[in-house]
Amino acid sequence: MNHHVAALVARLHEQPSHTGSLIVTLFGDALLPRGSAIALATILDLFESLGIGPGVIRTAISRLAADGWLVASRRGRSSYYRIGPSRRGEFIRAARHIYGRPRGTAARSLIIALPEPGPGREPARERFNRLGFASWQGILLAPDRPLPRSLEAGSIVLRATGGPESLRRLAARAWRLDALCDHYKGFLAIFGGLTADAPAFDPRDALLARLLLIHDYRRIVLRDPRLPATFLPEEWAGDGARRLCAQLYEALLDASELWLSHNGATETGALPTADSTLRHRFADLRGHV
Predict the structure, then answer these.
(1) Which residues form the Transcriptional repressor PaaX-like C-terminal domain (predicted)?
(2) 3-18 confidence digits (pLDDT tens)
(3) Residue 151, Ramachandran bin (φ over 0: left; ψ between -120 and 50: alpha; else beta)
(4) H or E segment at 220?
(5) Collapsing DSSP states into helix, strand and coil, what is residue 115?
(6) Domain boundaries defined on the chain
(7) Of 175, 211, 232, 235, which one has the fewest beta carbons inside 10 Å?
(8) DSSP string computed for 19-81
(9) Measured between alpha carbons, how far is 164 from 186 in angstroms, rounded to an integer?
(10) Contacts of 70 (CB under 8 A, 6+ apart)
């Protein structure tokens, strides 16, 4: 095992167990584009390299299946798992958030939303939260954007403008950007040392590094409200973290896909070829990383 990958694995074991989350990362990153079930034996083989035993894997997968994230099937004595149909949409939305282009940079106004009192108030607040609104000082805030008519009809919605400095100060407080920035800086420190060696990783190391890269990045970026640049500090660590993630992802992709193609078993044989979405990940950064 490459010493950089070994260091990432050692760091993994210094943290609380996130085996279920790692399995979700594997399915969302590596298996979603291939659209197939995968043998439990393949997962056990890969995770053995991470120092995670079969009992831990089986327990985590059973919990994910019970929650609908995965669906199990059997063929003879072998077990296979695929993404659960009830959760597939969540995997797709997360992939757009992780690999997709950030929101536009030009917004200079914000929405202030106050759901009307009554039985629909809490469901409306939940919908606003899912749309990336921050709850601050008793009100809901977000950069200006179109809203569903049904949501706007049941709320008081105002649009306000402010100067660049005021928008940045408000965003920093409402979305707690300092803590998020620290997470991005940590990501840069951990993965920045891989850039020189990553293109030469063997297939197994490449997939392990890719899995740990996206696992860490996913846990940060899915908490990122993806605010327009006008709401962010001028030196925003999230931009550098995304460029680094894209650079490493491209460097690791071919070798890691080779491991999956050679070792990934399904109910009918080898894993299908990945669809076109795989090569469109981080597409806006191609040639700029």
Answers:
(1) 175-260
(2) 999 999 999 999 888 8
(3) alpha
(4) helix 203-221
(5) strand
(6) 3-100+193-285, 109-161
(7) 235
(8) HHHHHHHHIIIIIGGGTS-EEHHHHHHHHHTTT--HHHHHHHHHHHHHTTSEEEEEETTEEEE
(9) 27
(10) 23, 27, 61, 64, 81, 82, 83, 84
Residue by residue, DSSP assigns 229-272 as GGGS-SS-HHHHHHHHHHHHHHHHHHHHHHHHHHH-EETTEEPP
Report d(CA 193, CA 190) in Å as an integer: 7
For residue 273, give the DSSP letter: P
**Which tokens is 27 given?**
């399915």
Residue 114 · residue 139 · CB < 8 Å: yes
Residues 263 and 220: their CA atoms lie apart, in Å, by 30
At 267, list the tokens: 């109910």
58 in Cβ contact with 244 (< 8 Å): no
Angle at 79 between CA 74 and CA 84, to 5 degrees: 85
What angle do the packed helices 237-263 and 40-48 form, to 10 degrees? Answer: 120
Please give the model's pTM, rounded to 2 decimal places: 0.88
Cα dihedral 187/282/19/225 (nearest 10): 70
Residue given tokens 């998020």 in the structure block:
180
206-226 pLDDT, tens digit per residue, is: 999 999 999 999 999 988 988
Give the whole-angstrom CA distance, residue 241 versus residue 246.
9
Identify the CATH assignment for 109-161 out of 3.40.50, 3.30.70, 1.10.3470, 3.30.310: 3.30.70
Q: Is the dihedral of CA 178, 182, 183, 185 positive or negative?
A: positive
